[in-house]
Amino acid sequence: MAELTYRPWREGDDQLLVQVWGDAEGAAAEQFRGAFAPDSEGGQDPDGGSGSHGIWRRCVVAEDQGIPVAAGVVFSSPLHPQRLWAYVEVARDHRRAGVGSELLRRLRAAAAAAPSWAVHSVGQAHDGAAPRLRSRVPAGGAGAAFAAARGFGELQRSRHVVVRPGALRLSALGDGSQGSESSPLVEDLATGSVELSDTVGRYYTEVHAWDPPAPLGVGRAQQLFLSDAAGAHGAVVLREPPASAFGSGVAPSRKGRLRAFAVSYAGPATALAEEPSEVFLGHEPRLSPEEARDAVRDLLALIAYQHPVRLEVDDAMTALTAVVGPLVAAGSAEAGPETIVVGD
């Protein structure tokens, strides 16, 4: 193999590389391929958010006699600013020849020059140290072995789980005489709800303590998880029993506090009724572990009563994993391949 040359990404490289690479090796690779693009300086708004482009990025292409055979990209994540995302892909017939290592070396060198707004510890100024990197790889695959050999450790495991209809029995929520379908504790809630946005933001922050997100206020949480742009289609919540502001002897005057939420996301139109709905399921972070598990279980039983749902489940989502794990073991839910977020 002739000595390879390296250059920045150019328009049209994606079409040339896909012919050499073939199909993506998993969902993570497919997603990362979409990050390949010309270098970008990004930007920062006066209020501290990302600018109109938002993403700082450097992309390097390896050529063999003028033909692109490999590429690597490193880019910022406004939501998770402690590390930069990095990804390297090499054509199969050029692997184990040091190409991936050279691309990663070049990405690290580029990352060292990243602006302070693009990567920093949450709540702290950039201290000038070389930015840390993260990536997502299939568990047990070549990408995981490559990352481990180059100093990346496991940060988190996740998988997609499809829960089949009726996998969980509906609970009696409320006065004990009505099923959960008609319970006053279950409510369809507008995705623009301040209460919902606040709970979603705090839950996301809690279950991502392993890679702390930037501060998530109500507006930011609504934009990222509950807006039309995010694909949010609807939301249902589970509440505590109605509360009285004047003691237990007076009729309740306000709704109970939110315990758990399920946000559905619009997928491609399909005529198949059994096509799973994409759902983000979580709970009020202040609940005890047992309360959180019960709330998640009850709401999952409701939303998966007649139709299958697809959940992305991280190991850090302890209440959800406690509910879903037994379903997978019993065959009432199907788990997809595990992916690992790795970081240095």
TrEMBL record:
InterPro entries: Acyl_CoA_acyltransferase, GNAT_dom. Residues 4-175 form the N-acetyltransferase domain. It comes from the Bacteria. This is GNAT family N-acetyltransferase. It comes from Sinomonas halotolerans.
